[in-house]
Write a structure and sequence with these properties.
By secondary structure, the protein is of the alpha/beta class. The chain has two domains: 51-150, uronate isomerase, domain 2, chain A (Orthogonal Bundle); 168-462, Metal-dependent hydrolases (TIM Barrel, Alpha-Beta Barrel), CATH 3.20.20.140. Helices cover 51% and strands 6% of the residues.
């Protein structure tokens, strides 16, 4: 069997002189706590602290980064258990076998880096996965999952995660978060995130019934606005620091109040047109910024994704199963109404993400380089890979500077990949800053100060921790 080894210089610059600087920088931040202000880990995982069931439910089923690559190579999502709960042991083992037999599909991807780090660092795996050793690796990992040392809370402490944000529906009672806040044995600060997308899309089927879940009197537009504001206050009372928005575009054109009220009535009656629903959602994105100025929630915006691109997969396996696909994105004109009104408001922190790499240098960096409210979010989804992170580092910092970066965002449901993803970011940031030192654009002490800021200071300041 081929050995699975983690080279100490992985992802650091190839040039020996620059690499030596990068090593020194990375060594100073390697062990710093993890700040994770945007992710999708289920908070019940931490509250219940039950052992992970098996390697497939830990590594494969919840991670659409993995399953989409396997699916592209011809592996059935049904065979992987995507969209299901924990599988019976024979099916879980078979899903793991499929993964190991198709390990080569991960070559050249960041998923390979994350997986290798998780397997080696967390479970002591020393062989590269193959069809031949799949059962042995399954048994090795499964045996450790039964130990107290590999329960969720023990790993949370081992990973040194200081802050962990989840993603939550506005109508959620947040009982899990309330219980977590009352549990003094958990050192990590775990916070909900307000994710209102489906409550702003007035044209979606069943929307009139959906908005009733917000509570209050939502029979008219004023009551709807009041209900959203009240839910945001409730989230804040349980530790929320941000509201997250992921619509297909970034439009923020406000409506006249009478027009907003008219469209809202049409939506409740089920007669709203697609054009009206689009105008209403863009108006509500503007309103979300207004609310952030009032209540202080950081506003994160990651538009530009065609959600659930393959209807058959959505029907069979549900959303968030690997078939969200990027679309072309425009931000400068789309955000102008919002920034005209709120761009210099002291309470607004607007963090912009994209899956269009050109947007970072063409629009996000210039916006962040002028508006004090705007920050450039870390490369996200299809862009959180070494080549695009390096491109982002150069494109954004030379226009807006390091102070306008959000810090790293892991955006993951796969719990054991969190430290691997943050480690990748620290290595790449160390390499980029080492290059600036080697070019005599920064002194090494400035590079270290900047790197430390990106790891811990920036995310704390941007997300108001």
């Amino acid at each position: 069997m081929a050995a699975l080894t983690l080279h100490p210089d992985r992802l650091l610059p190839a040039d020996p002189g620059v690499r030596s600087i990068a090593r020194r920088l990375y060594a100073e931040v390697q062990g710093l706590p993890i700040i994770s202000p945007h992710g999708h880990v289920d908070p019940r995982l931490i509250l219940d602290d039950r052992p992970f069931v098996d390697p497939a439910s830990l590594f494969i089923q919840p991670d659409h980064y993995v399953t989409r690559l396997l699916h592209s190579g011809g592996v059935s999502l049904t065979d992987l258990g995507v969209g299901e709960g924990p599988l019976p042991e024979p099916r879980a083992r078979e899903a793991w076998r499929l993964f190991c037999a198709n390990w080569q599909l991960l070559r050249g991807t960041p998923v390979r880096f994350w997986f290798e780090s998780s397997l080696a660092d967390v479970f002591g795996v020393s062989e590269r996965p193959t069809a031949h050793n799949a059962d042995a690796l399954y048994d090795q990992i499964a045996e450790q999952l039964g130990r107290d040392s590999h329960r969720p809370r023990a790993l949370l402490e081992r990973f040194d995660i200081a802050f962990l944000a989840t993603t939550d529906d506005p109508a959620d009672d947040l009982a899990t978060h309330r219980a977590l806040r009352e549990d003094e044995s958990i050192a990590t600060r775990i916070a909900p995130t307000f994710r209102p997308d489906r409550y702003l899309e007035a044209g979606r089927p069943g929307w009139a019934e959906l908005v009733k879940e917000l509570g209050g009197d939502v029979g008219d537009y004023a009551g709807y606005i009041a209900a959203l504001e009240e839910r945001r206050r409730y989230f804040i009372s349980l530790g929320a620091v941000s509201a997250d928005h992921g619509h297909v575009d970034a439009g923020t054109e406000p409506l006249d109040i009478r027009e907003a009220e008219r469209i809202y009535r049409s939506a409740l009656a089920g007669t709203v047109t697609p054009r009206e629903a689009l105008a209403f959602r863009r108006h509500m994105t503007f309103e979300m910024a207004r609310m952030s100025c009032d209540d202080g929630l950081v506003m994160t915006l990651h538009p530009g994704i065609w959600r659930n691109h393959h209807p058959a997969t959505l029907a069979a396996h549900g959303p968030d199963t690997g078939h969200d696909i990027p679309v072309a994105l425009e931000l400068t004109a789309a955000l102008q109404p919002l920034l005209d009104r709120f761009g210099t408001h002291p309470n607004l922190h607007l963090v912009l993400f994209t899956v269009d790499p050109d947007v970072y240098s063409r629009e996000i960096a210039p916006l962040a380089g002028f508006y004090p409210s705007v920050y450039a979010g870390a490369p996200w989804w299809f862009l959180d890979n070494p080549s695009e992170i390096r491109r982002y580092q150069q494109a954004v910092t030379e226009i807006a500077g390091f102070s306008r970066l959000s810090g790293f965002i892991d955006d993951t449901r796969a719990f054991c990949s969190i430290p691997a993803r943050h480690d990748m970011s620290r290595r790449l940031d160390a390499g980029f800053l080492a290059g600036l030192v080697a070019e005599h654009r920064l002194d090494e002490d400035e590079a270290l100060d900047t790197l430390t800021g990106l790891v811990v200071t920036q995310p704390r300041e941007v997300f108001k921790l």
